[in-house]
Input
Amino acid sequence: MRIGTQNFYDRSLFSMQTRQADLDRAQEELSTGKQILRPSDDPVASNSIIKLKKEIDVSERYIKTQDTAERFNVSGESNLQSMTNVLYRIEELLVQSVNGSLDSNSLQAIGEELQVKYDELLSLTNSRNANGDYFYSGYKTDQIPYTEDTFGYAQYQGDDGQREVLIAASYQVPVNDPGSSFVDNVSSKYGHFNAAAPAVSGAQVSVGLITDPTEFAQPTAPASTFDLQFVGAPLTWQAVDTQSGTVVEGPHTYTAGDEITFQGISVKTDVNNPPVVGDQFVMAQDSATSPEKNMMWVIGQAIEATQILGTVYTGSANAGSNISVGGGELKKPENHNLADFQISFPAPGQIQVDEVDRSTIPLTVISNAVPAQAYNPAGTSIEFNGIEITVSGAEIVGETVRLDRPENTRRAEVIGTIQDELKNVFTNVDNIRSQIGARLNTISNEALAVDQFKDVLTKNLSMLEDVDIYAAMNNLQTSITGLQASQQSFAKIQNLSLFNYL
Output
């Protein structure tokens, strides 16, 4: 058989190129650790590899968002723990403040520490997370949640939004709690009153808070709306129950910045932008069935309660009255019954005193404490219910004058109400902490599930894509040997010639 020289060279070259390609392939598999280097190697397996890699990428993104969600919730829980610690100290201070033996200096010291705790709590409600976002402002992450208004009451500036992150397929977990969900909605026995709108003059009044629970807590449903009116010259104010049209308080002379109290409700006015003649404010209760208060208002009321120090009965007449009331000291404790009274003038030169319940509209006369007796405008001393008062001034028939119980008795009552509300503050904070705990458990469970799923994907990807290292080394050695043999055989055969055998 005759073999042409050109044919010999072609076949030898092809053989060496094939061996070289096998060697290159073996080297590439060994260096990359992959048995499928390009889709053409195995189109079906390549398609599966692409899908598996996408699933792994998604799992890794979930792991990152799980870390983010866990970090934010852990930070939030830590912040709430700090709040709880502050609230525990406030609770202790409130217990101390109802001690009847405390003097004004002791109450002042308690009030000062309560102010420090208030500031600390306000700072905690305005805390930020590691990203610089406010914890409790809802979607408004760059808006400070709570700022104090003109009257010193903390007002929420955020919204009701709750930010969420995707930690698994179709599963989102919250990473914050808006302040409106636990700071603003503290369950309260009395709630608060809001002015429907600023006055015509642009003047504003504060939120109305209950500072005399006895006077506010009617035996029947309380009036839910009052009309606060400013009239006359000199300027006076009066409060009208809008349901019955009854004047429940006033008229009283008004001076810019005065705090107005009616039906057990206190409303602050702005000394720099006071109401003027013709102004009126419709004060409506937030809810007659589910009243609520702001957490910060509760603590603020506790601070103000430590400043209630009066120990004597005090009289207050309406604007334009000439009547003044002095005394009010407790003379005979054994004969004393804590109550509210009303002084009236049923006829010219006559005065009488009745025990009243101001929580009703109109007020209810409970009993006659001092029957009608002679009245001397120069000064009439009256002793009853273990107390002694002196009334003076020209009377007007039908005129009435308030005689209120000592302020320090109101302090104990107010603080008792605040203590009940503080329990609800604890409940709100604890509820949010419980929710965060549930979220952290969910994140942990989802993290475990995603990790396990990722492991399965990684193993499947390895089975399809990764090379058997021992087989790859054997292929490399075989390719080297084959190439060397091809090269050596070519070198020997190309030198053959018939002339060597002649």
